[in-house]
Design goal:
With 276 residues, the chain is mainly alpha-helical. The protein is 77% helix and 0% strand.
Length: 276
Amino acid sequence: MRSLRALDAKTLSSLNIYLFIPALVFTSLSRRELEWNVFAGFALGCVCMVLGMWAVLGLIAWRRGLEGDARSAFLMTMFMNLGNFGLPVCKFALGDDGLALAVVVMVCGSFLQNSVGLYFAQRSRLGMGTSLLRVFYFPMVYAFALALACQRTGWQPPVAVFRAIEITADAAIPVQLIVLGVKLAETRLDTGADIFLASAMRLCGGPLLAVGIAGLVGLEGLAAKVFILQMSGPVAVGMAVFGIQFDVAPRFLASAVSLTFLLSVFSVSAVLYYLM
């Protein structure tokens, strides 16, 4: 398609972030009862994943003598693709109920990606406090809060309004897949020991750590499957975007995104076999 007509991935990505994903978050959660222990398990699990991957990747980076931007980029590969990759996979493998839970994991994980991940990208320029505040620039946070308020109070928007939001939400997953495809098509794959190490940790270390954490935080059944599957994806496209925007080893991060996406065909298939 790109050989016939250029696609503006930035515009599509902005539409997804500011319109389609917030609509998906609201429609997925506002009319489904969310168990607070499950939400707490997802939130705590995501924090444990970040801390665990931070420790392991930090140790590897130290052993390899990585410093400055190279170290930051290496650590940024801990963040997995919860939206463009995770949501379609969860819907395909676990149905609408799995998708609803995957949206909760995406919200929790995205909060960390857009705070801790942004901190890694900008830590020579901005502090953690400023990076955390930037999370609230994204409407997904407010859509999540509104959905929870609707759950607790029983209030629902008028049928016509909710139907319009549903139609908007239906565009989220197809557009995410298109954005992912465009980003991958634009990437020139680089190779090197650090890229392969980071990719191995994301695709192999991530699922193994997620299995242990799911049990540790008390996730069971479908919730555990969704959490493990979401934690098993390739490196988040957003990390490559941060790398380009803040000039933090952009080629390394773009290559890590591409390589992990290609290899995830095999690794995520293995995770699905284990879960099913």
